[in-house]
UniProtKB/TrEMBL annotation:
This is Discoidin domain-containing protein. PROSITE patterns: FA58C_3. It holds the Pfam family F5_F8_type_C_2. The keyword Repeat does not apply. Residues 133-284 form the F5/8 type C domain. It comes from the Bacteria. Residues 1-25 form the signal peptide. Keywords: Signal.
Length: 284
């Protein structure tokens, strides 16, 4: 359910000072632009690969074409990747809407609590509450890769490199961008890399390649891959996985202090792409 907070602008029209022709064409006493934001409140956490976003829209509910400028502002430490949405809004029936996605982020050291994003057109304001959540624990037994900065040799346009560290390892959600898929069909190797927040002593990596009833690992999963860790700037292979046909592979190895982990895809079972649903890194 959407909730709209509209501050109605008063003008000469409300005082009856408007000529009949203007009044019949449009109602200048009230902005015909309706603002929308989905979802109506958002949560954000200060990790580089757990982005939040808001879908914002402007709808012309009036009977005259118009040009609208939406200003987007955020209360620090919240930042938005867009500050303005400008668009021509023709008067149409059904009402015409333009919308766009706005990325919402906070730095790692952001204090948790309630903040606010505001969308403004003319004197209408739509306030969207933003809750900054505490950072997830990253101690012994916690997944050190969750939400940390991921990068890859390439990423297919339909996917997001952060999908493999978003905390969702369910292959049934593959179509919702919870995984990473490289962009070089039939060409290997492909690499997916995760930079840890700080050097950590690690001894286990859990790799989830695509494996669902619709996309079984024996056909769509990674067949051959190396698990590597970065120690003092040099990559070391800690597990060579070969002829894999299952969705979940556990790699355990002698504890090592590393600041990054990567999966090097050498072959997939059908020879096209490297696919990862999730990669987890643990200290024990
Ligand atoms: Ca995922």
């Amino acid at each position: 359910m959407k909730r709209h907070i509209a501050v109605v602008a008063l003008s000469a029209a409300t005082l009856g000072l408007v000529t009949p022709s203007v009044a019949s064409a449009a109602r200048p006493d009230r902005s015909p632009v309706r603002l929308t934001a989905t979802p109506e409140r958002i949560e954000v956490v200060g990790l580089p690969c757990l982005p939040s976003s808001l879908q914002v829209g402007m709808t012309n509910t009036g009977t005259a074409d118009l040009y609208a400028d939406m200003e987007l502002t955020a209360e620090p430490p919240v930042t938005l990747d867009r500050q303005v949405l400008s668009s021509w809004l023709p008067a149409r029936d059904p009402d015409f809407m333009v919308s766009t996605r706005v990325g919402v982020t906070v730095p790692r050291d952001a204090e948790s609590g309630e903040y606010q994003v505001e969308l403004t057109v003319d004197r209408q304001v739509l306030a969207v509450p933003v809750e900054v959540l505490p950072l997830p624990p990253k101690g012994a037994g916690d997944n050190l890769a969750l939400g940390e900065q991921a990068s890859a040799s390439s990423t297919h346009g339909n996917f997001d490199v952060c999908g493999a560290v978003d905390g969702n390892k369910n292959s049934n959600d593959w179509d919702t961008l919870t995984g990473w898929n490289d962009a070089t069909r039939g060409v290997f190797p492909d690499t997916h890399q995760i930079a840890l927040a700080e050097p950590a002593t690690i001894s286990r990596v859990e790799t989830y390649t695509l494996d669902s009833a619709r996309y079984p690992a024996a056909r769509y999963g990674l067949r051959d891959f190396d698990v590597q860790v970065r120690v003092d700037g040099a990559w070391q292979t800690v597990h060579e996985v070969r002829a894999n046909v299952v969705g979940h592979v556990t790699s355990t190895f002698d504890a090592v202090t590393a600041d990054a982990v990567r999966i090097v895809g050498l072959a997939s079972n059908n020879g096209d792409y490297s696919r990862l649903v999730e990669v987890e890194v643990y200290s024990s």
